[in-house]
Amino acid sequence: MFEREENPCGVKQADIVVGLASYKEADNIAFPAQQASEGLKKYYGDKSSAIVNCDNCSPDDTEGAFLGAETEVPKIYITTPPDTPGKGYNFENMFRKIVELDADVLVCVDADLLSITPEWIKYFVDPILEGHDFVNPIYSRHKYDGTITNNICYPIIYGLFGKNIRQPIGGDFALSRRFAEHLILQPWHRTTEEYGVDIFMTMNAIMGGFKTCNTGLGAKVHKPSAPKLGPMFIQVVSTAFLTVIRNFEKWKNSSDVEETELFGLKELDPAQDLDVDRSIIEKQSREGFMQNQGELEKLLSADAYKALVSTFSSDSIDIDTDLWITVVYDMIASFKDASDRGALLEAFKSLYFGRTLTFMNQTWEMSSAEAEELILEQAKAFHAKRDYLIGKLEG
To answer: Which of 74, 128, 294, 328 could make a disulfide contact with 9, Cβ separation 3.0–4.6 Å?
Structure first.
């Protein structure tokens, strides 16, 4: 949704565009803009380029901070109308802008990045110039960072779509103009216009038959996302479930899992430490289960519901891998015809917290590398049980 554009250098064409999606990032946006400019000049000085800030009409003068940043590469500022928040709206404006600029490559990065380097631009752009359409990031992450990815998005993409894309909602991407044009034409749900846009892009790349790959970036340091986790969960999971259901005929007959080529850094530094309070997660899970027990009984298979009642009645919540797969697949099947999808997702959230707690208890003494093996085993188990969901969606 477009409201206003500022293009002080009069840019009409660019081969490569770096896009920064923002809302209230006046204190942070200059740094990623400067790093992007350095990378574009260092590695692609022979090509025309631009940096585009797609903003949600931030009240803190993000516009001024961005346009005032010292960069050799020209900048363009685009905003949605006032009171139109949503990362997806910003991405949609980016996609339309690179088509208008006749660009070959779009790199999308978060406007609050503290760890971006000029090399990130190369790690993202090179795969597109070599013929790929969509590049997902690979970061070094703590074993308890990215719990929506680890327990929902990654195993669904691995298990149902047959693609090993480890971090499908990383927040930073690169894409070809061909893929950007495809995304513009897809149906955009309300949650896609918000935090659901990352999983929307990744899933549509796979289902659209576009050439995807990963690129190693190292650590990602930015503002913590904990305050956003409530709406983020609803928007990401809703978009994922919708895309799975809409594309059922495309993925149901795929059988093998395809590995994904890796560009960029092949070895990543250890992840940063992360403070985790398991008691808070347990409290959220137990309270949510109590509040949504009646809803869950309607949404889940009888055996799954019985197992959950048993574990929530005990001193220690234990939602093991097999039970978790059944829960996720039951929820997708119920989502298809649910009259109140918001209530379904709120009920599901309590079980997601329970699964997260189970994984933490299981891996508390493990290294992140050891825990990573269990995440992969879970994804493989999702693939092994995919016929369970296929049967429910066909029936």
So the answer is: 74
pTM value is 0.95
CB 214 within 8 A of CB 262: yes
- Mind listing the pLDDT tens digit for each residue in 140-156? 888 998 899 999 999 99
Taking the C-alpha atoms of residue 373 and residue 246, their distance in angstroms, rounded to an integer, is 31
Query: How many Å apart are CA 46 and CA 35, to the nearest integer?
Result: 18
Helix ranges (DSSP H) in the chain: 30-44, 62-67, 87-100, 118-129, 147-148, 154-159, 177-185, 197-207, 229-246, 248-251, 278-299, 302-312, 321-337, 341-363, 368-384, 386-394
What CATH class is the domain 4-264?
alpha beta
Amino acid symbol at 204: N
Whether residue 15 contacts residue 125, with contact meaning beta carbons closer than 8 Å, is answered with no
Domain ranges of the chain: 4-264, 278-364
Place of tokens 């894309």: 165
Tokens of residue 29, six digits: 């946006």
Q: Give the integer Cα–Cα distance in Å for 349 and 343.
A: 10
Q: Which two three-digit tokens encode residue 344?
A: 């379904």
Task: State pLDDT tens for residues 272-289.
Answer: 778 889 999 999 999 999
Structure tokens at 282: 């347990």
